[in-house]
Amino acid sequence: MSLLIRNADVITLADPTSSAPEHLDLRIADGVITDLGPGLVPRDDDEIIDGRDRLVTPGFVNAHTHSWEAPFKGRYDNMPLELWMLYSYPLLGSAPCSPDFIRARSQLFALESLKSGVTTVVDDVLETPTQDLEQLAAVLDAYDRIGIRANVSGHVINLPFVDTIPYVADRIPGEVTDQIRATALVTAEEYLDYSRQALNLVQGFGQDRLRYMLAPSAPQRCSADLLAGATEMAVRHDLECHIHLLETKTQLVTGTEFYGTSLPRYLRDIGALSPHTTFAHGIWVDDDDLEIMADHGVSVSHNPLSNLKLGSGVLPWRRYREAGVNLGLGTDGWSSSDTPRLLEVIKAASLLHKVADPDPAAWPTVTETLRAGTVGGAASARLADRIGTIEVGKRADVLMWDLTTLNFTPRQRLDHQLVYSENGSSLERVIVDGVVVVEQGRLLTMDEQQIVEEFNAYLPEIHAWQDRTDRLNQVFHPAFAASYETCSHTPSPINRRIGDGSHHAPLHAGHR
C-alpha cells in the first residue's frame, strides 16, 4: 500500500533560495518519497489523499531539546541559566528515576512534539546521578512505540558542578562543597564503554528511526579526554556529538578563567571538533570562534525562546550565516522554554533578529528560518541524507496543513503565513517514516489520554520531591547569584546590542 497526496501546495525546501510552494502530487511507499511531480497517475495500490486546499511541508526537526525536564515545565521564571540549573538540575537531593517513569515522561514529550508537527527530536537526555542502559532503553521504547524519529543521548558531566562555574566554589560552605566533590563521577573510558553498549542497544529499536548520540555536556563540565574521545567515537560511527557551548556571558568568562582562551579554541586544541559536532546555543562567539567552527564543519542549534526566557543573550544570526556555519533550531528543554513546539521557535527566530540588528538586509528570511527548522536541524543531527526536505528518495516525514482555516485567510504567501500566522491549529496530518501518526489532531499510534493520565499519576510524588530539593539547593543560591553578577559585569570583547546581561538587577533567593 502506498499513499498518494494529489493536487497539494508543496513546500519542498529542496532549493536553498526558496520556500515558495509548488502545486504537486506526492507518492509515499515503504516509508520513502518515491514520486513527486504534477499529475501523477494513480496506481491500484495507492491510498489517495485529497491535497486540494492543503499545504504539504517537511516535518520539523527539533535540533536541541531535553525531554527529561518534563516535570519542571512551567515551574520556574526570572532566573538566568546558572541559577535556573540549581533547581532544574539539583545538586542535592536527586535520586535515580525509574524506567517506568522515564517511559511515561518520554511518551508525554513525544505526544506534544508530534501533535505540533515535530517529527524528529534531538533529545539530550540527562539522568541524575548518571544514566544506565535500562533508563536509556525506556526512552527508546517510548519513542519506538509512539512513532517519532529521534537522536537520544547519553548526556554526561564528569566534573564536579561547583567547579564548572567561576567564582562559586569558594563562596559555598566547605562541607557542602566536599559533599558535591565526593560524588562519584564517570571517567572518560567508562562513558565511552557505556556508549558502545548503547550503540548495540539502539539497534533493537525504531527501524532506524532512533539513533544514539554522544553528548558531553559542555567543555567546562567534562574532562578533555572525554570530550576528545566522544568526538572520535561520533566520527567513527557517523553519530552526532552534541555539546552545550557559550550559552551565557558566564560561560564566556569561564573560557578565559579556566583555559585562558575561548571555549571553541579550547575544543579545537584538544581535538574535540568535527563535522559531527553540534553546539547547542553558541551565543557568545567572536569572529575567530566563527572561523574555527566553519573550518571544522560544526553545526549550531539556535534556541531563541529558551535564550530569551533565561536572559542568555542573542545569537549573531547573520554572522553565522556569512561564516557558512549550519544553523538548526531547537526548543531547548521543557523547563527553560516550556514548550516542545518548534513552530513557535521558527517564528521567534524570524522576529528576534530584526531587533538584534538595525540593518534589514541582515534580518532572517522566511526561507532561512524554515530551512533552519528542517534542513538545518537534519544536517546537525547527521540525517540530511534522510530527512529535512521533500525529495524523491528521502524518508517520508511530512506535514499537511489545512489552508481553509483563518490562519491562512486571506491566502497570500503560504510560507510567510506558515511562519507568522499559523499557531499549529491548522495541522491536519503528521506522517513519520511514511506512517500517519497524527490525524485531525489525534494521535493514532497510542492512546493519548492514557499517556497523559499515566504521567499525571506521578504528580504528587514529583511536587513533593521538587519542593524538597528546592529547599536543599537554596544553600547554593547566593554563591551562584554572586558569580552571575560578577560575570555579567566583566568587560567583554564581544559587542552585543541587546541581551548581554550587563544591566540585570541583583538576584536574591526566592526569585522563581
From TrEMBL:
Domain Amidohydrolase-related: 55-437
Region (Disordered): 492-512
Organism: Citricoccus muralis
Protein name: Amidohydrolase family protein
SUPFAM superfamilies: Composite domain of metallo-dependent hydrolases (SSF51338), Metallo-dependent hydrolases (SSF51556)
InterPro entries, alphabetized: Amidohydro-rel, Metal-dep_hydrolase_composite, Metal_Hydrolase, MTA/SAH_deaminase
Pfam family of the protein (one): Amidohydro_1
